[in-house]
Amino acid sequence: MSERRNGGVLIVIGTLIVGFILSQMPLPAMFVWWRPEWVAMIVIYWVMALPHRFGIGMAWISGLALDVLKGSLLGMNALSLTMVAFITLILHKRLRMYPLWQQAMMVLVLVGINQLIFHWIQSLSGSTGDSLVFLLPALVSAILWPWVFVVLRGIRRTFHVN
């Protein structure tokens, strides 16, 4: 039983590492605002799928790791991912029942909240723009959600992560 649980933790951490890598892959300058929020989507999935094992604490640790990786103000991603995980934890039973297109709409809202918190903290530190282009990653994340969900569900079922 302990080996299965440790294997599940490694799978979750492995998917987060893939999310970290995807969030740092270089893109052409014209596509920078179109980068999906990979780590936020992975956090949403794991909180939805395993709320008893992946919760607010893991989202906070993931956010801190993302802050260090991106070189952003320490705690910005941690706070925003914690809020997203909290809302997902409250709604996880409903989210599971929704079809993928409705889940994608909720991902749009959740990643939008993530972006708004991040943008708000940036504005407090004095380094932000005036347009709403910072919300584009929420739209792209919602469009990609069905595929991310299917891939992560396949990984979870293949490796029997419970």
Automatic annotation (TrEMBL):
InterPro entries in UniProt: Cell_shape_determining_MreD, MreD_proteobac
Compartments it resides in: Cell inner membrane; Cell membrane
One GO term (biological process): regulation of cell shape
Membrane topology per record: Multi-pass membrane protein
Pfam families: MreD
Chief location bin: membrane
Keyword Cell inner membrane found: yes
Gene Ontology CC annotations of this record: plasma membrane
Listed transmembrane segments: 6-27, 39-61, 73-92, 104-121, 133-152
Keyword entries, A-Z: Cell inner membrane, Cell membrane, Cell shape, Membrane, Transmembrane, Transmembrane helix
Function: Involved in formation of the rod shape of the cell. May also contribute to regulation of formation of penicillin-binding proteins.
Protein family per UniProt: Belongs to the MreD family.
Protein name listed in UniProt: Rod shape-determining protein MreD
Species of provenance: Neptunomonas japonica JAMM 1380
Name of the gene: mreD
